[in-house]
Design goal:
With 393 residues, the chain is an alpha/beta fold. The protein folds into 2 domains: 8-36 and 357-391, Roll (Urease, subunit C, domain 1); 49-348, TIM Barrel, CATH 3.20.20. The protein contains 11 helices and 20 strands. It has an 8-stranded parallel β-sheet. Strands 3-2-1-4-18-19-20 form a 7-stranded mixed β-sheet. α7 (233-238) links the parallel β12 (215-216) and β13. It is globular. The protein binds zinc ion. Residues 129, 141, 196-197, 217-218, 222 line the site of zinc ion.
Length: 393
């Protein structure tokens, strides 16, 4: 665990109201939030929102967590670097790969958490997306077909051991052999189950939800390019009230009308914004060889499977970009977008939700809005459990 952070206070404008407040923090927790009368003009004050929580980040800057060679030091640097984007909490995500690659990546993340208390504080758990997914073209997306396999609880337990018990979320396609019994066991073990990369029918989705699945992984992506108008896996998950939807609002994965429709159908309490950043997010435009095959980064930041215009291979954006995009698209207000990328993922994964209230863990994001509404947010500080991970005094 991190050494007990010193007490500190932050004066900034609340993200929902613009009201200047003093937030007093001790022992990693918000102790008090009170009105502040700053000695400077309001325009000079930064704004404060809950630090972002992204439950699906695959790596950054050319480092992928799914790898036979990634080191604990690389993991540590990637995770610490994400604080520059306002990310206070994340689930490093591994995708479908050989057992050896998964084991190595999970061990590297566990070692990074054990080596660095700040990294441990930023990683409430790991997301294992696959390998128990649909092998069909379309639903499987960029996941390599040769490594997709049926649900295997025994393998999960071995992987969980490699991860030091840190896997808190797994994505499964409900139609794979053994899915229902796998979901039942995972939920009993305290692991949240999400549905994704699927061509399941309504009965299979219903059975998975009854077994305890509670999330849809990037709803609207990871499915067939063409499918019946209804029923289909998008409607079946959209209309299932027990499923919270994860949505990638990076501007490439979904058209704005779809993002608006998903958020309105699920409501802002049951939608999670995630960036699904690829390990190649942050890299210059070009073609790259990856374990998933060749990918192509366009000048506009889109990351696709080379030669296949319909398939994306994760996103080139980070969470704060998706938060602002969701608001720009008209899916929600900016304060709602912040909460869809902080308190919602924390709650749905069973962690304490936080939104700048006394007693909440002190995960904070300090930012300045752009000069115009179309300018990106400027992240000026990120606090993780009361410690500066980016910016600060
Ligand atoms: Zn995916």
């Amino acid at each position: 665990m991190p050494t007990a952070p010193a007490s500190l206070s932050v004066v900034a404008r609340r993200y929902e109201t613009g009201e200047p407040v003093r937030i007093e923090i001790a022992g990693g927790v918000i102790e008090r939030v009170s009105p502040a009368w700053p000695g400077q003009s309001l325009a000079e004050l930064p704004w404060v929102a809950p630090g972002l929580f992204d439950l699906q980040i695959n790596g950054y800057g050319g480092v992928s967590f799914t790898s036979l060679t990634v080191t604990a030091e690389q993991v540590r640097q990637v995770i610490r670097g994400l604080a520059r984007h306002g990310i206070a909490q994340l689930c490093p995500t591994l995708v479908t790969a050989s057992h050896a690659e998964l084991t190595h990546g999970l061990q590297a993340i566990d070692a990074a958490c054990r080596a660095d208390p700040l990294v441990a504080a930023m990683v409430p758990g790991i997301h294992l997306e696959g390998p128990w997914l649909s092998p069909e073209e379309g639903p499987r997306g960029a996941h390599p077909r040769q490594h997709i396999r049926p649900a295997d609880w025994d393998e999960f337990q071995v992987l969980q051991q490699a991860a030091g018990g840190r896997i808190c979320l797994t994505t499964i396609a409900p139609e794979v052999a053994g899915a229902v019994s796998f979901i039942t066991r995972a939920v009993a073990a305290g692991v949240t189950v999400s549905l994704g990369h699927t061509a399941a029918d309504g009965a299979q989705i219903e059975a998975a939800v009854v077994a305890g699945a509670r999330l849809s992984t990037h709803l609207g992506n990871g499915c067939a390019v063409q499918m019946p108008r209804h029923p289909n896996p998008i409607w079946e998950q959209l209309g299932e009230s027990r499923l919270t939807a994860c949505v990638i609002a990076d501007g490439h994965h979904l058209p704005p009308s779809v993002v608006r429709s998903l958020v309105r159908a699920k409501g802002t309490l049951h939608t999670v914004l995630t960036c699904d950043a690829s390990g190649w997010a942050g890299c210059p435009a070009g073609r790259y060889q990856t374990p998933m095959g060749e990918i192509e980064i366009s000048a506009n930041g889109r990351i696709g499977v080379a030669g296949n215009p319909h398939l994306l291979a994760g996103s080139g954006a980070t969470t704060e970009v998706c938060v602002q995009q969701a608001a720009w698209m008209g899916a929600c207000t900016l304060p709602q977008a912040f909460e869809m990328a902080s308190r919602n993922p924390a709650r749905v994964l069973g962690f304490r939700e936080y939104r700048l209230m006394p007693g909440d863990p002190a995960h904070l994001l300090l930012y300045r809005p752009g000069a115009t509404a179309a300018d990106p947010l400027q992240i000026v500080g990120t606090l993780v459990a009361g410690q500066w991970a980016h910016g600060g005094a």
